[in-house]
Write a structure and sequence with these properties.
Rossmann fold, Thrombin, subunit H, 2 domains
Length: 292
Amino acid sequence: MKRILTLSLAAVLVFLAAAPVSAQDKTIKRKVAIGRFTNETQYGKGIFYDKENDPMRKQALDILSSKLAQSGKFILLEREDLDVLVAETGPNMNKIGADYIILGSITEFGRKNEGHEQVFSSTKTQTVEAGVSVRLVDAATGLIIYSDEAKGYAETTTKQTLGIGGTAGFDATLSDKAISAALSQLVENIINKCMDKPWRSYLLAEDGGSYIIAGGAAQGLAVGDKFNVYKKGRKVKNPQTGMEIELPGTLIGVVTVQTMLGDTPETEISFCSYSGQDIDENHLDDYYILDE
């Protein structure tokens, strides 16, 4: 009996090891573009201030990019023309090539020095406070799906005794630490919001019986992955807001990844076989793909 159970367990383990991993069993990386991270404070803005080369703006952008990259769940897109594309595309921002867009700003920044003198010793404490605001935009709809702000603090203390000890001017690294502390409070929510919704892609073209979809190996797609194809629902207008709302789509079929091409995450595509209802090849914009 023990031998039979052992053989049965071994067979199950072999089967599981050989079974392909479905797209639903792994994480497909989302494409995120970070743009228009601005410095709304008056700190450091002298007569020769250059908005495009604002050091605090770049600090915040680099810190946020690093924190999102460390999660391993995103492909970060560098789009220097993001502001122009957002202005041109309006609420339909699929042309940007990202699933989500992050817009942010430094809303508060201040520093102070405090000293305490005693008979034989003295201490000096430098403190920096930074406030950061972010908005997460769904590129498929143009709607803000998350908005929040947070404050971060950083400080350092030097001490002298009988004239011996550390002396320091302003510690420039404190601004990095304060901004990082503020962004750390927001990053987890950004990640959760981005990963809550199913991964979405689009039919780009039909080629000899195969359908080409956006996305490839860099995002985590693999040969054999299957994705549902939906036909978009009709749009209705909300009379209160004037905005158009797209109703849920209708499941019409399934695509299966056959091969993948592309040199960069922005240019990767996958060739897929298709089974299901007929697709109107003259109106591929009427369809989308979800990983569920």
